[in-house]
Amino acid sequence: MAVRSTAFWPWALGILLLLTLPATAQQIISPVHKASYSRDAVLTKLARAEVVYLGETHDSDQDHQAELEIVRSLYAKNPRIAIGMEMFQRPYQKALDQYLAGEITELQLQAATEYQKRWGFDWEYYAPLLRFAKQHHLPLLALNTPTEITQKVARQGLGSLTPAEERSLLRGSVDTNNPAYRQLIFRTYQEHQGHTSQGFEFFFQTQVLWDETMAAAITNFLQTDPDKQIIVLAGKGHIQYGYGIPSRVARRIKVSQSQRRPLVQYSILLNPTDTPTTSGQQPAADYFWYTE
Fold first, then answer.
1. Over the stretch 72-90, which tens digit does the pLDDT of each residue have?
2. Are strands 25-30 and 81-89 parallel, antiparallel or unpaired?
3. CA-CA distance, 98 to 101, in Å (whole number)?
4. Predicted structure pTM score
5. Integer distance in angstroms from the first to the last C-alpha of the chain?
6. How many domains does the chain have?
7. Residue 152 has pLDDT above 60, yes or no
């Protein structure tokens, strides 16, 4: 999501800071089992998943140190990984591929992805992770919805999408029927009245569009390259309780690959300051990862 042009989305505001030397995990808690686990035990379990979600607060230095630590550690266990980033919008996948292939420089990548316009923060916040991916030949996936499309849905709703836009971004059905997720977004809507959406329904539909767009990109990669693990970097709001991206990936995989073994996904909330509670019987994440 574009920070400057879609200010009504509170979870995406902030800066990604990826430092060269990551901090060490201090404590990892499972809200599922209500227990603490060692770093190595959790990483071993994560390495067996098809998808690992890292839910960040965008302006937290500790979160971005943890992201780099986790990516490096999982790569050491299994080099067949890809990194999905909500920080790049879907139409600019080709530019990421060109950067990884050494065909364009980092400066050219910024220009080709319209980075300053669509995200706008210091490039060095992202550079260590991008350079790690390039060094080790790891695919980078542009996951996010183009700003122009999210602005249109915020004004006119999902019904305003053209067939071509639906095919290119969504590639399947859209689920707006989760009452718990709707209530969660409604609380956010009530807290932030300075947005550009025309009423809650379009506000909610915009969030669902972001989730479904990213889920479609992840699902497509899983189907075309099933031997790779995907590590997804996204805001906590897209991950917690599984309502956003994870449940939509699971739904799409179940529909399109009914004979495949059950999809294994794990979600991690990085350094949550206000520890999320359960939603009914649903824990906020599989793990809370705290760094020193």
1. 999 999 999 999 999 999 9
2. unpaired
3. 5
4. 0.87
5. 29
6. 1
7. yes
Work out the angle at residue 274's Cα, subtended by the Cα atoms of residues 273 and 276, and round it to the nearest 5 degrees: 120
Q: For residue 53, what are the domain limits?
A: 34-291
Does some domain include residue 1?
A: no
What are the residues facing 52 on neighbouring strands?
Answer: 231, 266
- Under 8 Å between Cβ of 271 and 57: yes
3-state helix, strand, coil in the chain (%, to 5): 50, 15, 35
User: What whole-number distance in Å separates Cα of residue 267 and Cα of residue 77?
Assistant: 18
Whether 16 maps to a domain, the answer reads no
Those residues whose C-beta lies under 8 Å from the C-beta of residue 210, and which sit 6 or more positions away, are 1, 9, 86, 144, 145, 150, 238, 244
β-pair type (287-291, 265-270): parallel
| Joined tokens for residue 165 | 């836009």
Residue 247 lies in a domain: yes
Q: Has residue 144 been placed in a domain? A: yes
> 186, 200 in Cβ contact below 8 A?
yes
Q: Token pair of 240, please?
A: 């917690």
Q: Report the C-alpha gap between 47 and 110 in whole angstroms.
A: 31
Residue pair 142/92 in contact by the 8 Å Cβ criterion: yes
- Return the CATH number at 127: 3.40.50.11550
Calculate the alpha carbon distances from 182 to 37, 192, 200, 264 in Å: 32, 15, 10, 25
Listing DSSP states for 11-23 in one string gives GG-S-----SSPP
* Biggest distance spanned by C-alpha atoms of the chain: 50
CA separation for the pair 214, 224 (Å, rounded): 16
Q: Which two tokens stand for residue 89?
A: 């919008």
In this structure, what token pair is assigned to residue 2? 């574009």
Residue 95: what residue type? A
Looking at residue 281, what is its pLDDT?
Answer: 66
Token representation of residue 98: 């060109």
